[in-house]
Fold:
Amino acid sequence: MSEKEAMILLSKVLTQPGTKGNNQRYIDIIIQEDIPVLCVNKGAQKTRLMPFKVLFDNNENFWHKAGTWEYFFTSEGYSKLKDKLTARTAPAVIKTEEKKEDAIEEMESAEESAEVGFGKDYKTFSEMTTEEKIDCLNNDKKRLNDILAQKTKDEAEVTEILVDTTKDAALINHAALEEAIKLADDEAKKLTQDLVDSTNEMVKSSAQLISENVFSNEMMNSLVEKSNGTIIQHMTRVYLNGLAFLSYYNNLVSTSSAIQKLRIKFASEYRKFYHELLPHLSMEDIVLERVFYGGMRAIPTDLFFKWAVGFLIHDIGKANAVEYHEGEAKYDRKIVIDHVKQGYKSIMTKTNYPMEASLITGYHHEYYGDADGYGYFRAYLSQYKKQNPNATQDYCITYELEPILDYQALAYFPAKVLEIIDIYDSVTDPHRVYRKSMTPDEALAMMKEEFVVKHKKIDAILFDIFEAFIREKEKQNKGKSVKIAA
Structure:
């Protein structure tokens, strides 16, 4: 028997049979007895012995769908766990009523341990003073800069730092906003100014590290695995994957002939799609420059950082009562739409975050005006049209704010990107409450059919680039070099 065959997978022991839940009794013993975990990287053939509690504190479901990493008990650790379980369950006869009480206690314990809304860590951040929140963000920036300075970076360490610092920043900003909402606007902006500055600086370091690890096998595979279904995990994944995609996009349009290739195939593959969005224009007028106001181009550094902040705080308006994407309760469109309005209004009136970040927050479910979409600016644009009846939106996407505010373009570039990332994350998250999660192939096929072909909700060109990004990532992670295609 090989060493690997002699080890026991955590997933076989810690996942309750027939459920998606974890066996809390086993977990409690492992933590109390300090039983370690053997981490095995299948691709790099690396092994590490890690404290279970460290991995568990970072993500309470780390052993689910391990991807690149697999997690095992050593023979010694597994024997120790069995011995402790036996000792705890030694009494052979337990009264029926005691069994019922134990069952109730176990159910209550499971309910208390389940993470909802912004998760169990939120209370810690909400009780911090403003100075403590800023110190936390500054410490996170230092962690990011320290690893940026390393010539050789460990993928597992990069992943851990990116996930931890993003989670911290999202929780801190939500907690600060909850406090600021209770104050007058000027007082709230004064209270949050240093926090906004610290978040902006942390995002710059985070974005640089992500841009260096766009196709990191460790990072990309770990993001979905590090999910427990909470809002904060969704925000973390969308931020990190969103910035990785923007980095890929910049590299694509800056260093390849992608734009020229799009121009060549535009008439046959895209013109009809965009003419349906701009029907008041003649078919011949629908060219790439009508899709992208000012022409398709790379994202300047200053805009990149502002958009990164918007990606980080895009769901900051969600309350704990709003489940991430879906829940067992009946879908309430008014509640879902309200989180967008809350987020936008709060950021605009209570903080000094750049307006670009606010607009992303308020416009990331717009869906090109489709009836299923919603966005804070729909009412604004409707009112603008009433006051300026001759105004027309002659472009589809703008990189700048003014063409949106002046009724010239249908959509804001980072918001259209965020729509795609948001949908993809929602349907591929393995911890969806009542629907089976999709594979990347299933998700891309569904999005193409439902959001591009049947309905004009997400952008066709950006979606094709996103699909190329996913395919490229998969091939890079398999060690194959491929040609980047638009």
Notes: Confidence is low (pLDDT under 50) at residues 1-5, 90-115, 319-330, 480-486. DSSP finds 23 helices and six strands in the chain.
